[in-house]
């Protein structure tokens, strides 16, 4: 028996909500995660152990983790920036974490106040301790197709950072077009270059839909062998109709495309669309998934 | 000297505005068309000579045509359903018209109250008279990837209707995914099948973004040799944030992707984005172009 052709990593409850203006009640987060894990999604990013001063949206992650129903076979990774965060994660019974680095020096400096090399050195003890505790580690690389400060990014730099994260023990590398500027041929070329250093089976594609390019980019990445896709129900992550907001690609749109391509995801699209409509209403924003809106309209 | 790699057919002032809830003042339409033709767009669909009872949004087409500045080298086709419409078009000095047929029998019956064959027979004298007057004719085929009443549509049927429109004298056939249900592999298979009957150089791709698939579908069609793309500034055509609304793919998003792919369009994307912002404000709807919104935000 083989599983779905594509593994969707649902990042709405973390990457999505972290970038929403509204502070979401813990009850809502718990309901969101539990509803998502019931749709067949194999991975639901559940929160982050980061400074509540910097990221107040994630301050209740321990509470969220204590209250969700952990469904067998579903992963609930949390973002962890340092050993303090990892300690909290271990105390919360986390079995998967994610660490992050930028492919842009300027972005690294402005976002986490250190160079890329320093950020990677800082993760070494974190990933070591994680693995000592049997915790799987995912690595996020940001700004892979462009940086708001530097502009274009050399794919070789992305490959180098990705390879270093694998050396540090990351089982999977998620390549993030953080500002959504990529286009398909550039996305494909990036995957090809990174795959020279890290097997494509260990790479995930993480696109934001700022310029509307996310699905087209994913299509190009599928042609390069990508089989893991990060996405966010209802396109959570930045108000989609504000000027220049940078939401994640919507999971509903991704699943609709994949199923149309004959690529199974194991995800119940109607159930997912219902969740997208519900969470959009719950946090008072428009639903940024076009497939979600269309399916909800059909359902009446 | 060779022209742009891709020819964009801007359909916002007709296919777009015709499907907007708001009735747009003639002054605004004239300004929209004149601003669009100044961006480098080679074709700006300018209106329709259809019954004002059925399509009140297009009732002022003769007025619009009398008042726009006709820029040399730019085409201003109008939609024409019958000889009466053609007579009006000729009187207005039109040099390009478009006729339309469905690839779905059920859609043809419900939309124009006759069979596909009857609709094509009805166009025969129209296209003959058009050509006798040196007027170029474009043919639209609707529901090419799905019908709201019939569901899936056989690509062979689309090929048959397209071939018949070419026989009737259409120089170009625009294949329309009217309800936006297509996905990339299906779009590519359609183009391949229709290209067995009509050279791909005479085909245009016309996608609606109902399920968010339009750009990915266009990418797949480009791989099949499509070089003419219909799109609508700001994604005009149905409120984008209403449930199930079915706007055209936004011209800004298309141009952004094409330029990123190294495929020239000759269109000034910044000027186009400004127009998209202006017309969205003017008719009181959100701007449905994500590239447009992002570029406007960057411009400040």
Automatic annotation (TrEMBL), chains A, B:
Broad class of enzyme this protein falls into: lyase
GO BP term (any one): ketone body biosynthetic process
GO molecular function, one term: hydroxymethylglutaryl-CoA lyase activity
Pfam families, A to Z: HMGL-like
Keywords, ordered alphabetically: Lyase, Metal-binding
Keyword match rRNA-binding: no
CDD domains for this protein: DRE_TIM_HMGL
Family designation: Belongs to the HMG-CoA lyase family.
NCBIfam families: PRK05692.1
UniProt protein name: hydroxymethylglutaryl-CoA lyase
Taxon lineage: Bacteria, Pseudomonadati, Pseudomonadota, Alphaproteobacteria, Rhodospirillales
């Amino acid at each position: 028996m083989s599983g779905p052709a594509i593994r969707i990593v649902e990042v709405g409850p973390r990457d999505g909500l972290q970038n929403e203006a509204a502070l979401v009640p813990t009850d809502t987060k718990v309901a969101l995660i539990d509803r998502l894990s019931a749709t067949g999604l194999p991975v639901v990013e559940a929160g982050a152990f980061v400074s509540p001063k910097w990221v107040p949206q994630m301050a209740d992650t321990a509470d969220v983790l204590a209250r969700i129903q952990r469904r067998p076979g579903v992963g609930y990774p949390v973002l962890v920036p340092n050993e303090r965060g990892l300690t909290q994660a271990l105390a919360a019974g986390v079995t998967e974490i994610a660490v992050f680095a930028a492919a842009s020096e300027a972005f690294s400096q402005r976002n986490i106040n250190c160079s890329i090399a320093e950020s990677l050195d800082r993760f070494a003890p974190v990933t070591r301790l994680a693995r000592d505790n049997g915790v799987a580690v995912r690595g996020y690389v940001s700004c892979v197709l462009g940086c708001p400060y530097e502009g274009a990014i050399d794919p070789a730099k992305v490959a180098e950072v990705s390879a270093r994260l694998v050396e540090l023990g990351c089982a999977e590398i998620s390549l993030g077009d953080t500002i959504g500027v990529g286009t398909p041929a550039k996305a494909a070329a990036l995957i090809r270059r990174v795959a020279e250093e890290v097997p494509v089976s260990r790479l995930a594609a993480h696109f934001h839909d700022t310029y509307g390019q996310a699905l087209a980019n994913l299509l190009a990445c599928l042609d390069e062998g990508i089989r893991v896709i990060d996405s966010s129900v209802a396109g959570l992550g930045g108000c989609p109709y504000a000027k220049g907001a940078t939401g994640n690609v919507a999971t509903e749109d991704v699943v609709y495309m994949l199923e149309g391509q004959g690529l199974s995801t194991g995800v119940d699209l109607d159930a997912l669309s219902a969740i997208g409509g519900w969470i959009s209403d719950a946090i008072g924003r428009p639903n940024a998934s076009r497939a979600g809106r269309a399916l909800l309209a059909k359902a009446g």
